[in-house]
Structures are given as structure tokens and as C-alpha cells.
Amino acid sequence: MSAAAQRRLPARPGEVSADHPAIPPRVSFPVLRGNAGLFSPFTFGRVGSWLEPVPDHVIAVGLIAGARPVGLALGTLLPGKSRCELLSIAVAPAARRLGLGGRLLDAWQAEASGRGATECRANYNETMPGRDALEALLARAGWTVSRPSGLVVIGRVGKMADEVGAWPGIAGRLAAPRSYAFEPLELNAADVEAVERYLSTPEAADMSGPIRQAEQLADDFSIAIRRDGQLVGWLLATETRRPLVEANADVPAIRYLEAYLDPAYRHAGIMVGAYYHCYSRQAARLGRDSVAVYYTSHDSRPRMVALTLRRFASLAERVETIFSASARLPASFRHQLTGECRGHPAHRRGAGPHGVAEPEI
């Protein structure tokens, strides 16, 4: 969640301002469909655009008090999977400490369960404002204890490309790639079958692949990895307009959001070569000072995490640990979530603003 969510929310039609003296006693938790832009102040920039209109894969539940939006829980249902991800949850200052944060989370989980999700997850960075409040909210709802799940590196792409290209053993492979090729992400019928086959394996359990998220990909920086002409992996990228580097909010930035390689070839340095290829292309097209953001998982890539810390920590603008919590959603997870909410705020325990950051921030 952006720092803006920590500041007083601006008063707009249909909103409760941060200094509103009281909250109406009756609240509801509607599932948002169509254009729900009035709720966008309760989440962060890129995700907020999903509210105008709300796509089918997005799970958005609002909190309304006296016909005014005062909160939002927002997440996604992973395509083709029975898992969902909570991206942000926030309650307006005037509506806090009434127990509404927990009820809003319950409503969001109920909707996710109703759409077939059996497990939900939240990822957030270690420096996120409101982290303690978020973890307390999830704990009260029965989620697992948060733990480190990955590492994010944010750095100038020119320096990162130079470093990758100088790694021992990698330079030779880059000069003579032999049977491997890094090509534009143009998939034929055989490639589509290969993607679906890879996504069905445990190694790709948390991935969506290049087909299901095609609309958000930056074609110039997303590639197919081939061996003897056959698809064996991919590296997917998207543009981001979030200010990732201090003192320069206008610098171009590319987020490398998903990397997969057939496990049979993971010890050949091929994925490192794929990153080098994309970093070099980004430096040539957007400039050496443009920003590259990438994520690596503690669970599936522990060696890559160690290598990243060793190689990139001194070069990066920022290196952050990502934390994760999860919960199981039984099929019977249903609640009646509208009705009265009475009582003095001091008698209720609620949550303040919460945000679940994207994995790269």
C-alpha cells in the first residue's frame, strides 16, 4: 500500500473524510462490480485502476456506511487455480476501531470462497506502512504467521546488466548460447501446450504464465526461452509507473514479474542469461538509469536468493524482503455481513489502514 493510504483520505462525493466526527451505525459489505472508482482512494495506484471497471478475475468488496464508501478489500483469483491473493485492505480513519476491518476481510474471503478459492495469500514488503496492523488483522482472522517468502531487488538496469554479464561462467554462455535462444514472446500451438503443461507442475504452483496475463505484459521486455526451438521457459515483464527510486519519480521502470525455466535446465545459467538479455535490451531502449525490479522466491529459489544478496546488494537502490501469510477457505465459508454496527469505538477492536504490497515493492 502506498504511503498515501496512511494520510488523511480526501473528501469526495460518496466518501467519509478522515476528520468526519462520526460513522453512521449501519454498514454493508457489497461485492463491487462494474465501475467502482469511488473506492479507488482505499487502494494503491496500479491496482486502483482495476476498479474502473472491475475485471472478472478481481475480487473487490467495499465497505459502505450511510451510503458512503469507507473501506475496500481488493484481490485477485488466480486464473485456472483455486487460490486467491489479497492485494490491499483499508478502512477510512473515521471508521476504524469499530471491528470493521475484520468484518471486511471476512466478506472478502466469503466472496473468494464463493468463486471457488480454497486458499488465499497476502504478500507485503518489510517496510510497508501499517505492517503491524495488517499482521494483527490477519492473525485475528486465523491466517498463518507471516514469514519471509522472497526478495525484491530494485536497481539501475545498466549496473545490473554489467554485473550479470561479468559473472564467472556466465560470460562464456552469453557469447556462445549454443542450443538456447531468447526470443520475442510469440507462442504457437505447441508453445501453448507447453505452457499449460508447465503450469500444472508443483514448480509453477504460484505462476500464471504468459497467456493468462498477456494484456499486462510489456512485449519489448518479455521473452520466450527456447532450447533447440522448443519452449522451455519464459521471463515476463510489465511497465510500472510507481516512483521506485527516491528523488526521481519520472524514471522509467520495468517490473520482471515472472520467470520460469524447465527444472531440467536450471543449473546451466540459462535464466541468468535471460535476465541479462532483458536488462541489456531495457538499457538500450530506456536508458542505463532506468529501473529494473525483480523478485525471487525463498521457497522455490533459495540459491537464487543467496546469489542475489551476494551479487546485487551493493549495486541495488533497494533490496527488500517480502513477507507472506495465508489461510485456507473451507467451502462452507459464508457469513451474513450486512446490518448494524453499534457501540462506542473504545469498546471495539478494529484495524487501521492495511495494505498488501505487490511482490516487487
Quickly list its features.
27% strand; disordered N terminus; single chain; 9 helices; 14-stranded mixed sheet; Aminopeptidase; 2 domains; globular; 361 residues; 14 strands; alpha+beta; disordered C terminus
In words, what does this structure look like?
This protein has 361 residues and is of the alpha+beta class. Helices cover 24% and strands 27% of the residues. Strands 1, 2, 3, 4, 5, 6, 7, 8, 9, 10, 11, 12, 13 and 14 form a 14-stranded mixed sheet that branches. A hairpin with a 2-residue loop joins β8 and β9. α4 (157-165) runs antiparallel to α8 (270-286). The longest helix is centred in the C-terminal third of the chain and has 17 residues, at 270-286. It is globular, with a radius of gyration of 22 Å. It starts with 25 loop residues before the first strand and ends in a 6-residue tail after the last strand.
At CATH's second level, what is the architecture of the largest domain? Answer: 3-Layer(aba) Sandwich
CATH class of the largest domain: Alpha Beta
CATH superfamily of the largest domain: Gcn5-related N-acetyltransferase (GNAT)
Largest sheet: 14 strands, mixed
Low confidence ranges: 1-23, 335-361
Topology, element by element:
Layout: E1 26-28, H1 45-48, E2 58-65, E3 68-77, E4 83-91, H2 100-114, E5 119-125, H3 131-140, E6 147-156, H4 157-165, H5 170-175, E7 180-184, H6 189-199, H7 209-212, E8 223-227, E9 230-240, E10 253-261, H8 270-286, E11 291-297, H9 302-312, E12 318-328, E13 339-340, E14 354-355
Parallel strand pairs: 4-5, 10-11
Antiparallel strand pairs: 1-2, 1-13, 2-3, 3-4, 4-14, 5-12, 6-11, 6-12, 7-8, 8-9, 9-10
Helix pairs in contact: 4-8
